[in-house]
Write a structure and sequence with these properties.
Layout: H1 5-12, H2 18-28, H3 43-48, E1 58-64, E2 70-77, E3 81-91, E4 94-98, E5 102-104, E6 119-122, H4 125-141, E7 148-154, H5 164-177, E8 185-189, H6 193-201, E9 209-213, H7 219-225, H8 233-248, E10 255-261, H9 269-282, E11 285-291, H10 304-316, E12 320-323
Parallel strand pairs: 4-7, 7-8, 8-9, 9-10, 10-11, 11-12
Antiparallel strand pairs: 1-2, 2-3, 3-4, 5-6
The structure holds S-adenosyl-L-homocysteine.
């Protein structure tokens, strides 16, 4: 069990009032590069805090896509494990980061490179927060990239809701100490229903945007491509989604269904109609089609005309839908390609 920085702080400074930790945490989100630079802390704390890690992730390798719009970092975490995190340009002066929540993943989705690794361990909230801090520092050091982090997506390695408490802690820390608001953070999940239920009544869960990896509104097809799916998953998800939107939905807060486009598997007109029907029964949902990025031999990406036709069927049924732009596939940084494998380095 890796002890959090917070826990280490309270052990090291048992008599310090609670607000001191908030000051420390605020310092972690500043542009300082070491504890010594945090002059907001007392000299006593600065002299004794050195055993707490300033950074819990160490860069091993950085790859940059040919067009310079996507940077991928391989970061080492405790236990000699590697994770990957990605920085993507979304518009001038603004970057989106894609963070990992686990080393590997237990969900085994057949089209996802992380799924093939199995789960090694969940990341701590410090390791999640430090991916953000790593990119903050990176942009600070690379002034030519001109910009700041405006969005965060939890779409890297792992299933965020299988690491609910640490992800929640990290989200709250980021929301508290950065200028990134709830509508600029998206947690993507395969749909862990007990955790989605918990979220509805959890006062401490920050209602950032949610994206659910649906991939098919036909139960048999979903079970085929998402092994953790089961017979009544879709009706249960539909029921949950209605209750979620009733409580938390508004003009700015919708749910997103992600849908990876797999040739001949889930990209037929029948599948599009089933998806439209499922979405329209729920309400404020948007669909994001993701062209499949190659991770193995079992699947192929749908053809551009198939994607176009799929999108047209959705739109003809008034489903708000978009196709995700593929970024960084030349450096294996696109959706589902993150595996942090040491062989690749
Ligand atoms: N475990 C989370 C985060 C996964 S990554 C989840 O399941 O949502 C974010 C998105 O990329 C998910 O929708 C995931 O299904 C999708 N994805 C995974 N592998 C992919 C691939 N090879 N090509 C395109 N999208 C992929």
């Amino acid at each position: 069990m890796i002890e959090s920085r917070h826990k280490q702080f309270t052990t090291l400074f048992p008599t310090e009032p609670a607000f001191r930790w908030k000051q420390v945490e605020q310092g972690l989100f500043s542009f300082a590069t070491s504890w010594e630079e945090l002059t907001s802390l007392s000299k006593y704390i600065r002299e004794h805090i050195g055993s707490i890690p300033w950074m819990t992730v160490t860069p091993q390798k950085i790859q940059i896509s040919g067009n310079g719009d996507t940077h991928k970092a391989l970061l080492r975490v405790e236990g000699d494990q590697d994770i990957e995190t990605v920085l993507m340009k979304n518009k001038r002066d603004a970057w989106t980061i894609c963070v990992s929540s686990q080393v590997g993943c237990a969900m085994r989705c057949g089209f996802c490179a992380t799924g093939k690794m199995g789960l090694i361990r969940s990341l701590t909230s410090d390791e999640i927060v430090d991916q953000y801090r790593f990119w903050m520092q990176y942009l600070q050091e690379h002034k030519e990239l001109e910009g700041r982090i405006s969005n965060i997506v939890f779409m890297g390695m792992g299933e965020p809701l299988a690491n609910y408490e640490e992800v929640k802690y990290a989200l709250n820390a980021i929301l508290k100490h950065s200028d990134i608001g709830r509508t600029r953070i998206t947690v993507s999940t395969v749909g862990v229903l007990p955790r989605l239920e918990q979220m509805l009544t959890d006062k401490d869960w920050p209602h950032v945007r949610l994206a659910i990896s649906l991939h098919s509104a036909v139960s048999e097809t979903r079970k085929q491509i998402v092994p953790t799916s089961y017979d009544d998953f879709l009706p249960k998800l539909g029921d949950w989604a209605k209750r979620y939107l009733y409580r938390h939905g508004n003009r700015r807060h919708h749910l997103t269904f992600e849908y990876v486009m797999l040739k001949g598997v889930n990209d037929t007109p029948d599948q599009a109609r089933a998806l439209a029907k499922f979405v329209n029964r729920i309400g404020n949902v948007r669909v994001n089609l993701i062209p499949y990025n190659l991770t193995g031999l079992e699947f192929e990406c749908s053809t551009p005309p198939a994607i176009k036709q799929f999108l047209e069927i959705l739109q003809s049924k008034h489903v708000i839908s978009t196709t995700r732009r593929t970024m960084g596939d030349d450096i294996d940084a696109a959706c589902g390609q993150l595996a942090g494998s040491k062989e690749k380095t």
